[in-house]
């Protein structure tokens, strides 16, 4: 499980995850991921490189979304693969965070006050 | 097809790609399916580096798999293959990247005769979950063409016909051919194992968990989608299926439904297609072998008979007799499956006259009076009567099981006092007669019964024994899932699922019996309390929730505390949202019950769930709650309770959650130390599991 960070304009950060976000993958990235979600108000999570998402992974993303929301910010999911998108739907995650398919859509979902 | 007729030779080994078989000096080697898949992926590209990702996506396409599963199978392969003649390894590890098959490999084309033909190439246009047919579909090209046309013109097509006529296989292949027409995919939903919850099952198979599982909410989600849904075996739940289909067709203009059912759904707009038997030659035809083989029924009979390995071949001499056999059994595919194995002990002519006698008795010589479903019944009955008493008893008792069932489960349900080897002999004998089918799509071979045969066998099981067997079945699966729940703590998800996932149909059957009028509330509650993990791992949230709610409604003051605690022991986020206050309350109640029982590990696990949920609440709020009931305090207590049981998934999750708690308290130093500790636990679990998998021991020691 790999985690990488890129700066976004303004106060935002893009988190690029790749590999298998299952229970051991979630443990590998839980701390660095939560650290960004605590610090930043606008977070785009690029899931295009994530091949597998289990319920532990969903909980990780859920905490991230809540951490951002607590500061009046927002978390956006970018480009999940088909199987990963299905898991997010099963967990009703799409009701909590926008799921978009392009970086520009991600920035507009975050809104002008965040980026 | 060419790639299916290839074998790879290396050292004393021959790997038959199509048959999925590894031979050592000509003798089949015992090897797990997954390990074989890994080997095949490596050997196909021998000499090249195959990355871990490539191997995992080849072996577990689209599955949730922990990475260390691969290491387990590589280690199993090294054991099986040993060293080459000059003392070298067959497999080379490329550190951090993958593996390479380094021994010399020669590739040979195998004559088609030894390799059964495999299903056609699959178009990749749209997503789907269509099962792979294990044998090719014979004699159905006309029907497939007609059904494509029907689907273009009608949004609801129902395949009807007697049991055994091949509705399911035809529906699957029709769905596969129709893939390009449905950009949102073709989805196959088997209704055979359920007795209710049709909409919930459809929502789950389609991955639409946020639909509540009612027909209306499902329709709202599917509106505007170009999907084909195949509802298989609707006759079990005909009223509920019809109501759901009616709502979906009315509300979703882009959706199509292909149903299979012994009877029509009887709703507006339904286009009924009665699946015919396979064509058979007329009695008057003077037949050559070549001419006979053009008829689907003969083609299928010949393929099955040749597969017996008794030297059967269709000739100009026996063509007319074979044609007569196929006519006698009306060209019904399941009947052909049952009749062909008789050639082991009978000649073609004896089989034909045996059938004549059989059906003569049925009809008083007036052959035309036999309805199709009676033909199949008569053939099953004949097969049954030819069994010896112990085989008959096994068939009747096995009928209580549903879906693919392992040999150990068959022993426990049908013949608990018999030796495994004796039961295996009985099972093999029934497989040879096509009364039960082997299912090799799992790590161990499982067995299941065609539905028509199952009804017949259940009918022969006296009411009283039926009740006893169902009870024994339900009790056994409650115990099996209790054991599975313990094993889960130290197993990688994928290995666990390979062992227990296929038991879900037996679980459904057991729950239906246990909650039913003749059932047992005690067994029902045990079943629900021990099956949280399987629903969770299979992603079946709606069914999980349904059974938990039903069970909780049955709890009384007399319910034992352990049962009550287990009912509440789902994993965080499964039955309710992780930070739902009532979920945290449920976890705390369970923890307190476990404390009363002196079970520190499970008390810790439930406190961890409560702690993680509370932490999620804490992190989203500006005010800090009182320290004694904060998320972090709960997690610390949980950790102290979990640690004495050694390395477990629960402990790793707990330590990782504690790292986040320190992060939220701005203590990055401690947070990082805890994070490293959690990683070390997962690493050790992966390593010990590789060992446990090879000697068969696993599970939590409590």
Automatic annotation (TrEMBL), chain B:
<dbReference type="InterPro" id="IPR016032">
    <property type="entry name" value="Sig_transdc_resp-reg_C-effctor"/>
</dbReference>
<dbReference type="Pfam" id="PF00486">
    <property type="entry name" value="Trans_reg_C"/>
</dbReference>
<dbReference type="InterPro" id="IPR058852">
    <property type="entry name" value="HTH_77"/>
</dbReference>
<dbReference type="InterPro" id="IPR027417">
    <property type="entry name" value="P-loop_NTPase"/>
</dbReference>
<dbReference type="InterPro" id="IPR036388">
    <property type="entry name" value="WH-like_DNA-bd_sf"/>
</dbReference>
<dbReference type="InterPro" id="IPR001867">
    <property type="entry name" value="OmpR/PhoB-type_DNA-bd"/>
</dbReference>
<keyword id="KW-0238">DNA-binding</keyword>
<dbReference type="GO" id="GO:0006355">
    <property type="term" value="P:regulation of DNA-templated transcription"/>
</dbReference>
<dbReference type="GO" id="GO:0003677">
    <property type="term" value="F:DNA binding"/>
</dbReference>
<protein>
    <recommendedName>
        <fullName>OmpR/PhoB-type domain-containing protein</fullName>
    </recommendedName>
</protein>
<dbReference type="Pfam" id="PF25872">
    <property type="entry name" value="HTH_77"/>
</dbReference>
<dbReference type="GO" id="GO:0000160">
    <property type="term" value="P:phosphorelay signal transduction system"/>
</dbReference>
<feature type="domain" description="OmpR/PhoB-type">
    <location>
        <begin position="5"/>
        <end position="103"/>
    </location>
</feature>
<feature type="DNA-binding region" description="OmpR/PhoB-type">
    <location>
        <begin position="5"/>
        <end position="103"/>
    </location>
</feature>
């Amino acid at each position: 499980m790999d985690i990488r960070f890129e700066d976004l304009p303004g106060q935002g950060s893009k988190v690029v995850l790749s590999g298998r976000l299952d229970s051991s993958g979630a443990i590998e990235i839980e701390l660095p991921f939560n650290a960004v979600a605590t610090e930043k108000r606008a977070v785009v999570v690029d899931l295009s490189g994530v091949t597998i998402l289990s319920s532990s992974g969903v909980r990780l993303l859920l905490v991230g979304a809540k951490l951002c929301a607590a500061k009046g910010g927002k978390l956006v999911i970018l480009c999940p693969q088909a199987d990963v998108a299905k898991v997010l739907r099963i967990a009703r995650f799409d009701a909590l965070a926008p799921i978009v398919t392009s970086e520009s859509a991600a920035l507009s979902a975050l809104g002008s006050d965040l980026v | 097809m060419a790639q299916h007729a290839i074998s790879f030779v290396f050292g004393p080994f021959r790997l038959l790609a199509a048959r999925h078989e590894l031979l050592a000096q000509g003798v089949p080697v015992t090897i797990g399916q997954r390990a074989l898949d890994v080997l095949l992926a490596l050997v196909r590209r021998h000499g090249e580096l195959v990355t871990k990702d490539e191997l995992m996506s080849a072996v577990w396409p689209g599955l949730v798999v922990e990475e260390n599963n691969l290491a387990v199978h590589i280690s199993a392969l090294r054991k099986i293959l040993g060293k080459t003649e000059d003392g070298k390894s067959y497999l080379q590890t490329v550190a951090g990247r993958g593996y390479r098959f380094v021994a010399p490999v020669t590739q040979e084309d195998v004559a088609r005769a030894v390799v059964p033909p495999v299903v056609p190439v699959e178009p990749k246009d749209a997503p789907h979950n269509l099962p792979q047919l294990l044998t090719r579909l014979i004699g159905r090209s006309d029907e497939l063409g007609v059904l494509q046309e029907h689907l273009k013109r009608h949004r609801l097509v129902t395949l009807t016909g007697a049991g055994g006529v091949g509705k399911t296989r035809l529906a699957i292949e029709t769905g596969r051919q129709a893939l390009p027409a449905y950009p949102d995919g073709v989805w196959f939903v088997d209704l055979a194992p359920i007795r209710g919850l049709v909409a919930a099952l459809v929502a789950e198979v389609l991955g639409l968990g946020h639909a509540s599982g009612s027909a209306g909410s499902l329709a709202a989600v599917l509106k505007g989608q170009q999907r084909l849904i195949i509802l298989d075996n609707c006759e079990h739940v005909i009223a509920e299926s019809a109501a759901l289909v009616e709502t979906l067709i009315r509300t979703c203009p882009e959706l199509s439904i292909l149903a299979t059912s012994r009877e029509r759904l009887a709703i507006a707009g339904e286009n009924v297609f009665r699946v015919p038997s396979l064509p058979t030659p007329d009695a008057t035809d003077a037949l050559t072998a070549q001419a006979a083989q053009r008829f689907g029924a003969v083609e299928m009979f010949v393929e099955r008979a040749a597969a017996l390995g008794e030297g059967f071949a269709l000739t100009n001499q026996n063509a007319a007799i074979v044609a007569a056999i196929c006519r006698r059994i009306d060209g019904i595919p399941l009947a052909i499956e049952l009749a062909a194995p008789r050639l082991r002990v009978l000649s073609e002519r004896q089989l034909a006259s045996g059938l004549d006698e059989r059906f003569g008795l049925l009809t008083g010589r007036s052959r035309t009076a036999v309805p199709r479903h009676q033909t199949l019944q008569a053939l099953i009955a004949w097969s049954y009567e030819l069994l010896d008493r112990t085989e008959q008893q096994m068939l009747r008792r096995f009928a209580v099981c549903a879906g693919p069932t392992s040999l150990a489960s068959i022993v426990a349900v049908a013949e608990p006092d018999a030796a495994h080897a004796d039961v295996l002999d009985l099972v093999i004998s029934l497989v040879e007669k096509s009364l039960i089918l082997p299912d090799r799509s799992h790590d161990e071979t499982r067995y299941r019964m065609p539905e028509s045969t199952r009804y017949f066998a259940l009918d022969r099981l006296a009411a009283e024994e039926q009740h006893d067997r169902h009870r024994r079945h339900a009790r056994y699966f409650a115990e099996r899932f209790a054991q599975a729940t313990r094993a889960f703590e130290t197993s990688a998800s994928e290995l666990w699922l390979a062992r227990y996932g296929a038991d879900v149909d037996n679980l459904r059957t057991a729950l239906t019996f246990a909650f039913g009028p003749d059932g047992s509330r005690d067994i029902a509650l045990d079943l629900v309390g021990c099956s949280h993990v399987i629903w969770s791992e299979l992603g079946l949230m709606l069914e999980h929730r349904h059974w938990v709610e039903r069970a909780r409604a049955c709890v009384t003051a007399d319910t034992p505390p352990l049962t009550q605690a287990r009912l509440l022991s789902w994993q965080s986020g499964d039955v309710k949202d992780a930070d739902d206050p009532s979920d945290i309350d449920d976890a705390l109640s369970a923890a307190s019950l476990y404390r009363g029982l002196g079970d520190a590990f499970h008390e810790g696990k439930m406190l961890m769930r409560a702690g993680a949920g509370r932490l999620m609440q804490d992190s989203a709020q500006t005010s800090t709650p009182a320290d004694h009931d904060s998320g972090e305090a709960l997690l610390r207590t949980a950790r102290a309770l979990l640690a004495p049981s050694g390395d477990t998934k629960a402990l790793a999750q707990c330590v990782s959650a504690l790292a986040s708690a320190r992060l939220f308290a701005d203590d990055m130093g401690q947070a990082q130390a805890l994070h490293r500790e959690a990683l070390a636990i997962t690493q050790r679990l992966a390593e010990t599991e590789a060992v446990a998998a090879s000697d068969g021991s696993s599970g939590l020691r409590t």
